[in-house]
Amino acid sequence: MDWRNLRIVAFDTETTGFNPHDGDRIIEFAAVELHLDEEGRVRRVKPYEMLFNPGIPIPSKIVQLTGIDDAKVADKPRFESRAGEVRKLLTDSICVAHNFPFDRAFLAAEFERAGLSWPDPIAEIDTVDLSMKVFPTASSHKLSEVSKRLGVRLEGAHRATNDAEACGRCFIEMAKREHAPTELEGMIEWADALGHPPENRYLRVGPAGYVVFTDGPHAGDKVEHHPVHLHWMTMARQRADDRWQYRFPESLRRWAFTFLKTRGAGRARQNAKSFGPQDWVIDSNALPLPSQPRRR
After folding, report:
1. Are 182 and 3 in contact (CB under 8 A)?
2. What CATH number has the domain spanning 3-180?
3. Cβ neighbours of 258 (radius 10 Å)
């Protein structure tokens, strides 16, 4: 399957702060649906933009960064009222975001409040990780710097719609420049992206959209609740034919490793972020504090 024929949805969020599990909420969600031609060039862009009333005051630091204040969202709906619409957009698409864990954490928390689960994308691609792979010697991987390197136009950074389109175009440009495989599975592996788990008898995608164990001590539980066991699956060996062999198939071990990298033990934590420039990467020369991740 050629991934260029599939829906590519690049998205971004603006939030009241950095911790979705401590009361911070989404104030803006934006996405662009990108459609490519046979040569892999963008032929059509369909934008989606939604402002939300978070139900709490928007901090002044966020107002300065995004231009979104309490007055702009006073008459806007709560996220719950449009959660189904957002979830449907992300389902069965190649999802792209810049620092995917951050935006995913907020969206997952909002979906949970609305009684919904995380959708089942075809793939989850983080352009921060991809930039680190394509530009390993670069001093900064914030979206504005990546866009500049790739010749992608970015206007009005830190507004979700502009960031979303730039992010999507950066992914496509990196794929073209690096001659990424056109076959879906090959592209997912090239991008170090998280896709659907391979067919196996040890785990599967459950009806709620979460990957669950189907065998072993945690059968029926969500994979993300037992990262230590999932890590064990990447290393476990057993004796067979007078030699030690991996206990689980290579395809499953690769998927588990990618899941842990992007969801459990990856480059960036999903929440802790201060209002300092080192976390929002406002200054391209700023380095993150040892205990803090980059935002974008």
Report:
1. yes
2. 3.30.420.10
3. 20
* pTM score of the predicted model: 0.82
What distance in Å separates the CA atoms of residue 158 and residue 14, rounded to the nearest whole number?
8
**Identity (one letter) of the amino acid at 223?**
V
- The SS3 of residue 243 is strand
- Check residue 241 and give its pLDDT: 86
- Mean pLDDT over residues 63-69, rounded? 91
DSSP-assigned states of every residue in 162-190? HHHHHHHHHHHHHHHHTT--SBHHHHHHH
d(CA 257, CA 202): 15
How many angstroms separate the most distant Cα atoms in the chain?
71
Measured on CA atoms in the order 290, 265, 210, 228, is the torsion positive or negative?
negative
Contact 196, 251 (CB under 8 A): no
Checking 74-79 for CB contacts under 8 A at 24+ apart, the result is 76/51, 76/52, 77/52, 77/53, 78/52, 78/53, 79/25, 79/26, 79/29, 79/52, 79/54, 79/110, 79/113, 79/114
| Under 8 Å between Cβ of 10 and 29 | no
Question: Can you give the residue ranges of every domain in the chain?
Answer: 3-180
Amino acid in position 16: T
Tokens in use for 169?
Answer: 């175009």
Q: What is the pLDDT of residues 215-246, one digit of tens each?
A: 999 999 999 899 999 999 999 999 988 899 99
Tokens of 262: 């992007």
Alpha-carbon span 151 to 100, nearest angstrom: 22
Pairing type for strands 194-195 and 42-51 reads: unpaired
